[in-house]
Amino acid sequence: MSETTSGDIRSEAHRLIDALPDDATWDDLMYRVYVRQCIDAGIEDADAGRVLDVEEVRRRFGLAP
What is the pLDDT of residues 18-63, one digit of tens each? Predict the structure, then answer.
């Protein structure tokens, strides 16, 4: 996926954990990690030009303009 260094991942993991509420569950943590991975993948796709404009997405999914 992205070219993130191990130190960057560790720092971000700490930030995600530190931002959790005191009563957080493992599911809460896993959800935040999943969301972060999705965001990173989306940014990587956008940077690589793997994007579609809104009109094309609507056309492909049969959505009204």
Answer: 999 999 999 999 999 999 999 999 999 999 999 999 999 999 999 9
Is the residue at 34 inside a domain?
yes
Beta-carbon neighbour count of residue 13 at 10 Å? 14
Kindly tell me the sign of the dihedral angle through the C-alpha atoms of 27, 15, 11, 9: positive
In a domain, 43, yes or no: yes
- List CB contacts of 33: < 8 A, sequence separation 6 or more: 13, 16
d(CA 43, CA 53): 15
Q: pTM of the full predicted structure?
A: 0.72
Tokens (6 digits) for 56: 């094309």
